[in-house]
């Protein structure tokens, strides 16, 4: 007998959709020209805060928000490919996608803090490193943009493929519930954990904004 349980807690769902907005904003503004670069930087800072929140929530959050609950080990991936994997939350291949996206978003956001186009925009921490480091990180920041589009495209294709197979991925990320034979509700991730994760994220944004640097 299946029951509906809350798998994705509210902080995780808010993180997901706010990250969608922030990344979309960053990708749109980078293509609108120099006059939008300040907004590109602001969206980048938002991504930094959201990523740091997710990293904290991956330790402090409820059961299925924790990274340990969906680590895509080779054995788990093999069981999934053989049709033997059973569970709620991210399946092993979905977990690979999550880890890849988080890793690339992290690299893009943090490299952008040190990047500069030498014309319209310099990252808030570009003064904290050498000229050569700025050039290197700026180059990497631009070069990995293509990988960002690729991974986002694969993520969207996976959502469409699951939908065609009669499985819904967007719904649970809106309301958080899935049908399962596992009747145990997730544990952890209370108000105290949320407060700590939020404080850590806000501190990261303050540090990333470079207000502590000497002019």
Automatic annotation (TrEMBL):
Chief subcellular location: membrane
Record's keyword annotation contains Ribonucleoprotein: no
Residue runs in coiled coils: none
Location of the protein in the cell: Cell membrane
Membrane topology: Multi-pass membrane protein
Any Pfam family matching the protein: Ni_hydr_CYTB
Keywords: Cell membrane, Membrane, Transmembrane, Transmembrane helix
Top-level taxonomic group: Bacteria
Segments traversing the membrane: 12-33, 39-60, 93-115, 146-164, 191-208
Residue span, Cytochrome b561 bacterial/Ni-hydrogenase domain: 7-176
One function term, GO molecular function aspect: heme binding
UniProt GO cellular component terms: plasma membrane
Gene Ontology biological process terms from the UniProt entry: respiratory electron transport chain
Keyword Membrane: yes
Protein's UniProt name: Cytochrome b
Organism of this sequence: Halopseudomonas bauzanensis
